Amino acid sequence: MGFLAGHRAMEEAVMLAENSGIGMVGVHKSTHYGMAAIYVMEAMQKGYISMAYTNSSPAIPPWGGKTAYLGASPFAAAIPAGNEPPYVLDMAMTVIARGKIRLAATNDEAIPEGLALDNEGAPTTDAKKRLLKGFVYLLEDQKEHPLLC
Q: Which among 7, 28, 32, 145 is annotated as catalytic?
């Protein structure tokens, strides 16, 4: 449902922008919509600056915390640049994607140190412990966070 809603919402936003110069669309009661860059690139290819945002369930403690209050809240932006390469950003507020943790758990692999906490709030490299109500860290330094650069 989320993929269909994402494409339809961006189509509607582009149509609104064609008619009035700006298009904003909201979707509710949907599901995960995958890689956000797909939708912003649709609008970018038609010459529009575009942004897409979504919410997510709590999975991240605030810096220094041990209780999840924040979601990964993925977002994307795209800016056409004529003959130059376009600007496309697709990111979340975490240091690692849940999908990468799930893949590591499926393959019985460890995840790198410093990325996740177990359900007690202790650092872990065990992907399965992270999936059992553990947490991932927020982005925190300028080298990792394009919004702080």
A: 32
